[in-house]
Structures are given as C-alpha cells and as structure tokens.
Automatic annotation (TrEMBL):
Domain Growth factor receptor: 153-236
Protein name per its UniProtKB record: Growth factor receptor domain-containing protein
Pfam families registered for this protein in UniProt: GF_recep_IV
Keywords recorded for this protein, A-Z: Glycoprotein
PANTHER family reported for this sequence: PROPROTEIN CONVERTASE SUBTILISIN_KEXIN TYPE 5-LIKE
C-alpha cells in the first residue's frame, strides 16, 4: 500500500512516491515562498508579504518579500513600530526595554526617552520618579500617593492603573493578575507581562499561529496550527485533526524529504 501522500509508488514510505496526486508535484525541498508542514509532508504557501517563512500567517515571515520593509516579530512593516528599535545585526525591529518610550538598543541605558512615570537618572537609566517611592505615584497636587497593593509602579490609585507588577502577579491591560488568563501567555517572566495568543488559540506558548496548545471553540488542532476546517485527507492515515491535537493544508506542492 502506498503512503497517503503518493499516487503511485515503489514502496510504503513517503520517500517512495513515483507520482503525486493531481495538482501536486514531488519535490526534495520546499521552494522559496513556501514552508514545510511536517504534519502533512506538504509545502504550504507563505503569506504574500514573506519571501521566506515558518508558517502561513502575516507574522510568520523570516525574510520579507520587499527589501524596503523591516521585520518585527515575524511581520514585515514599512518601519519599526513605536517602542522598538532596528537591530543591524539581526536586521529586524526589536522591543525597547519596558522602561523606555524610545531607544537605540536593548540595554536599560539605551533609552532615548522614558516611558510614562519614569525619568532618566545620572547613569542614564529610566527610573520611577525619584520624588515618590517605587510603589507610589504623584497626584495632580504633586503629592506622592500609594499604588494599589499589587502594583510595583503605577500612574494612579486604582488596580487598573498599574505600570508594572509585584511578584507573583503579571501585568495585563494595566491590571496585575495572579496568572495570565486563557487566551494569553507569559510574554516576559522578568518584566512579568502577559501577551495575547493568536486569535485561533485557546491556550498557547507564544503569539504565532504555530504556537497554539489548545484551540478556541470552532477551531480544530491539526499539526502545528488551529484550523476552522480539517484539511482533506485527515484521518487514520494522516495527522489527526481534533480539538486536542495543526497547520492548514493547501493542495499546493507535495513534499518528499
């Protein structure tokens, strides 16, 4: 019996295909503009913005289609977004330290301007306003007031005025929470920040579509990704498609290692 990916073959392995199904061709390596879906042994097309990629989404680019664009967190943009800087070594935009509003590098002393509630000290670090203690803020009368008990830094008295959090809490939309909730992941353990999962993920380890752990209702886990519809051919002979165990399969190019 041939491997499910073969039309005709000389043996049962996927490497023994002699011809592929209609609309597909057998290749040794995925060409530029495609990435390898390990679960289905297919080459799947990258997003149009990507020259090279490791997934199907707009933020899965490893190289941009246009050399005029810059890459930030896998997405190709016309310029680096706010609170990021361009790293010449990796040729991509990277996040500034959380204490910076603008910066020239990743070090705490590389801030060009400071984030809200901070000012530069003699060493060039952006620190909380020295007139008030780290866990307090200056009110409209210029007096120091205590932050909410969960806030490490804040710009007001409420629990939704936090700028950073005391351990073991994490910052989510200016509020300190005991743990990052469903649909979010721990983006930065040191800075204690929550980041949003890809829209298809119920739980995840990062913001990319290929970092889902479980899927939202209406999506199914297939290979590395959560998909709305299981691809043709999923079942006993191929990678299971279920809400427990993703990548969207497109009938493009059949992969032979």
């Amino acid at each position: 019996v041939c491997h499910p990916s073969c039309k005709t073959c000389l043996g049962g392995g996927k490497e023994n295909c002699t011809t592929c199904p209609p609309g597909k061709q057998c290749v040794g390596d995925c060409p530029d503009g495609y990435f390898e879906s390990m679960s289905q042994q297919e080459c799947v097309r990258c997003h149009d913005d990507c020259a090279l990629c490791d997934g199907p989404d707009i933020d899965d680019c490893t190289l941009c289609q246009s050399d005029k664009n810059v890459r930030y967190s896998g997405e190709c943009l016309s310029e680096c977004p706010s609170q990021t800087y361009y790293d010449e070594t990796s040729k991509e935009c990277k996040d500034c330290p959380s204490s910076c509003l603008t910066c020239s590098g990743s070090e705490p002393t590389s801030c060009l301007t400071c984030a809200e509630g901070r000012q530069k000290d003699a060493t060039g670090h952006c620190v909380w306003y020295s007139e008030c203690s780290p866990s307090s803020y200056k009110d409209q009368n210029g007096k120091c007031q205590q932050c909410h008990k969960h806030c490490h830094g804040c710009n007001g008295p409420g629990k939704d005025h936090c700028l950073s959090c005391n351990s073991p809490h994490f910052l989510l939309h200016n509020t300190c929470v005991p743990q990052c909730p469903e649909g979010y992941y721990v983006k930065d353990q040191d800075e204690r920040l929550c980041g949003r999962c890809h829209f298809s993920c119920k739980t995840c380890t990062g913001h990319h579509s290929v970092e889902c752990v479980t899927c939202k209702p209406g999506f199914f886990k297939q290979g590395e990704t959560c998909v709305e519809t299981c691809s043709e051919g999923s079942g006993k002979k191929t990678k299971p498609c279920s809400q427990i165990s993703g990548v969207v399969s497109h009938p493009l190019i059949k992969k032979i290692p």
